[in-house]
Amino acid sequence: MTSTTVETPHGPARAELHCAPEGRAALLLGHGAGGGIAAPDLVAAARAAVEVGVHVALVEQPYRVAGRRAPAPARQLDAAWLAVAEDLATRWFAEVPLLFGGRSSGARVACRTAAEGQAVAVLCLAFPVHPPGRPDRTRTPELAAVDVPVLVVQGERDPFGRPEPAHRREVVLLPGDHNLKADLENLQRAVGEWLDRILRPLD
Hints:
alpha/beta, KANL3/Tex30_Abhydrolase
């Protein structure tokens, strides 16, 4: 594991790199709004990716690096994420496809930036379809705007809602709620199998 700092328009971000022996792609994973990169579902997804030959960067947003818990506005999160993606693609992951992903807020960032960042696929862990108890405030358009393969891994009892499968969007439901800690073994299996399958045509 290697840690690197990346300057962004909104302060330094940090990336924890886990490299596969022969990387066929690189997956950037972002954390949730109030959490960090040590979230169990992010760790399980990172382990699954490395096992199928995918480099992983667990990305810590500048507000977290600065010690703040309250998340930055969406436009700042997106700008910082794209700056990290560009830096890592140049310095660490040259000539391999990039995949974006994350949990909760990090999944939203991955979806919003996928096109501009030229991601070949997006992994969403616990995508927050709407705030709890507010199904009228849907974020489904962020998912719908992604035109590359998407995997959503969601807890069956997630109070943030449940996205539906769609064209190029697979949804895997697991026991548990928004933290996805109840069945990490099957989360890891689902992520690894999906990565292996979607990357095979690119190998």
